[in-house]
């Protein structure tokens, strides 16, 4: 062991001496570097090697290389630790001309010590990879360091070795091909022999083809190979425009290779709609790719006529492909009237094409999924394209989309294509078009007749009723399009009470209904013993059935804090202690929930402790010694209960 370490240290003598002579490191720093390396080398030579020792050793050396580089740059500028290297040389050669003075560059100042630390880091990584060949992270870390240190020759060897050991890792094939194709550009001041490396499309193709022979069904490799050919096509176009600015942008058969790759890809991975959409998105990222895009769309229509995602993708592509040509600022004040006319027409045309495709989709594919996706797509489209932008030039398009949605929901009801998502979208659409009464009627019919056990419909209905009551309270009457029917004039609390009875307790949505009911009850400020009793019963049910976070994303801690604040406000310290006893001593909060989170409940615990601390301080101030003593005993009991609660929860996590 000692002989190996001494041999490694002996090989460092000349480079370290060179770094000291150039003034980059002082003599004391060199001694510290040698001592640290000796300790690290002995750690690497232990009988059972540790990966962490290798990584820490390499990280320390990389930090030292960054320090060396900074000091080396200062030396080049004549601002070294004492500036002696360049200034002393120039003093001794005062007769040197200006042209000869250019000799004092990075190349002429380079020596054996400059690349020593980088080579040593490579040496550490190579030894680590020999011990843990199956660890891909070591290969990736070594490649990342080689890129950072601009060791591009070593980088090629790293990828070659990694691919021999891990041929099934697609990310390695992609990184290696990217390195071969894009190459690198040497930075200013690099040596002459490394001005840069131009990418090689041939080497990149070979690497990706080898990867595909081994991983025939890898989507990522096919997509990257497809993208690689488009990158090469764009590069060729750029070269043609540089050599001849008047040349045509597109050349015949230039997209032959991307088309060939697409056909082979869908043969290797057939009947996968997500894969075809990824290829389409990759194609749309480049200009002048309409031929291949048409081929992909035709294959989507042919192979995925019964798939809803394919129809949505075709509709979206129809809209995006018919947008305004790039380079015309139609929103500027200087735009002519003809340009503004083009603007309006160009926004109507893609809408019509898109809506025709969606209408054809709902006519050919009458399924609940198709109607759900069409409704969701059009609702999102309305919000993104119209509501969030200036609607001045979108009036006709807005009417078109609205009419299509009206027809869509009417057809779904006529064809008995019902689902919870369609009901919720329908009510949202009616609210957005200023028809809240009809929206509430749709939700009521769905909750009472179609989906009596679904919590989402009941909660949506109660939210509509809550908004209706707020409008009535603010305006004194209902200012909607119609007068409310008698059977829909229900309060949110009554709706949620019906929902609690309709939705089974074993369903997760039952807790969300209880949370909504609790929130409505606690918002009612009028004192009522019956309401207080119902509120406590609902609170106990929530503690019994729920986890620390409900399906609606509401924290149980927030509910406990809300109930604590309510009871302290209404009944004082007695009410607050009652809530504390219910949560800590009368509920099985941790035993019923495997996901109990003490960190989330910490705010409630802090509030309870603060309540008792303030009560003790007030009793002490008024010289109520017995009350103060009882409060301290209770506070001690609280601390014990909280510690026990969190300990049992942590034990469950460890198990």
Descriptive report:
The structure is a single chain. The protein contains 31 helices and two strands. A two-stranded antiparallel sheet has the order 1-2. The chain has 655 residues and is mostly helical. Helix 11 (170-182) packs parallel to helix 13 (219-243), helix 19 packs parallel to helix 21 and helix 25 runs antiparallel to helix 26.
Provide a quick synopsis of the model.
The chain is mainly α and 655 residues long. 72% of the residues lie in helices and 1% in strands. The chain starts with a helix and ends with a helix.
What are its keywords?
655 residues, 2 strands, mainly alpha, two-stranded antiparallel ribbon
Largest sheet: 2 strands, antiparallel
Multimeric state: single chain
Q: State the secondary-structure class.
A: mainly alpha
Fraction of residues in helices? over 70%
Spatial sequence of strands, sheet with the most strands = 1-2
* Overall body shape: flat
Alpha-carbon distance between the two ends: 42 Å
Overall pLDDT level: 79
Q: What's the gyration radius in Å?
A: 36 Å
Q: Which residue ranges are poorly predicted, with pLDDT under 50 across at least 5 consecutive positions? A: 79-83, 100-107, 188-196, 324-348, 478-484
The number of helical segments is 31
Number of strands: 2
Please indicate the percent range of residues in DSSP E strands (runs of 2 or more).
under 5%
